[in-house]
Write a structure and sequence with these properties.
The protein is of the alpha/beta class. The protein is built from 9 helices and 16 strands. It has 2 domains: 10-192 and 310-395, 3-Layer(aba) Sandwich (Aminopeptidase); 194-304, Alpha-Beta Plaits (2-Layer Sandwich). The structure holds zinc ion (2 copies).
Amino acid sequence: MTDTVPANDPQTAIRAIVERIEPALIEIRRDIHAHPELAFEEVRTAGVVARELQRLGIKHQTGIAKTGVVGLIEGGRPGKVLIIRADMDALPIHEQTGLDYASKIDGKMHACGHDIHTTTLLGVAEVLQKLAPQLAGTVKLVFQPAEEAIGGMKVMLDEGLLDGPKVDFALGFHNRPNSRAGEFTFTKGPGLAAADTFEVTVHGKSGHAAQPHNAVDPIVAAAQLIGQLQTVVSREVNPMHPAVVTVGMINGGHAPNIIPDSVTFRGTVRTLHAPARDIAEAALARLCAGAETALRVRCDFSYRRGVPALINDDAVLDPTVDAVRKQFGDVAREIGPSMGAEDFALLSQLVPSFQLGVGSGAPGGTEGLHNSRYAPDEACIGLGVQALSRAALELLS
Ligand SMILES: [Zn+2]
Ligand SMILES: [Zn+2]
């Protein structure tokens, strides 16, 4: 079989290669799906990736950020350097799809579709390796560990992901079960939220439940404080800047007739805009300090900034959406941002970036991401390969 590619018709060329490699890609995806690995443990998965890149004759480096792999495709002419990024880690979920290629590992599942991402990027690697003479520039294929633990991208960046060769822009993608396979989505500007966490320990003074006047009750203080925290979003943040303050954990006391010494609660702050993030952090600290005077307790407050907001840059978004439309017609639609988070956002703070939504919903409906019955339509792999390959051609033309 020959791989001659009609140079002037990227649409046909890409489609022809994808049609030929799709069955093998689906096999790879099912293999990865059956053997899910959690954050920074993606040894087997990285092995599959390295084996495939080796087979394709693509230069690559393993062991980046522990289990990450980076491949390099050099085009026929010099030009810019584009990252295309996939994540490889699974989730601590017990799979209940009943599929014959379901997870063989108890308590671990590819419920966020990172098996789809890894496989899609391997498909893109094969297409772009074949079309390399038509590329002006270099594609860096980034197989990232530990997205769910929100740690992999930071380690890759610390290890010099943006250098050698120096990266100009980045393209990410995520499967989306709420769009049908064949549909693509995009969000202009901030697409995903900054995700911070906070912890508050309210210290009172323990005592008999029947003698509250001899104690300082941290439960009542914590309850009031948690109520007040809800005013940060409603009264302090600009209503045009979306924000969420959620307390997701509270712990205090052990008996109905005892006022405890302390109560601890933890939560998350999600914001799309930097001013909202600063305001929320400052307001939380101030309300905790205020509770000390108002309620006689002492508050230990800590706030940890997690990943920043993911900012989609038109310089990457426009040519990518254009490429998708050239490849498939009118299948890309704009959607609003989400308050979810992901560490591709770190890249988006450093180089112009865009994350494309790749529809993965089956015709009969599909459970959502992180659901133990999530079973994406595998057609999204070949379609994603076509979209991203075409985008790379457009961005490096
Ligand atoms: Zn996820
Ligand atoms: Zn994910």
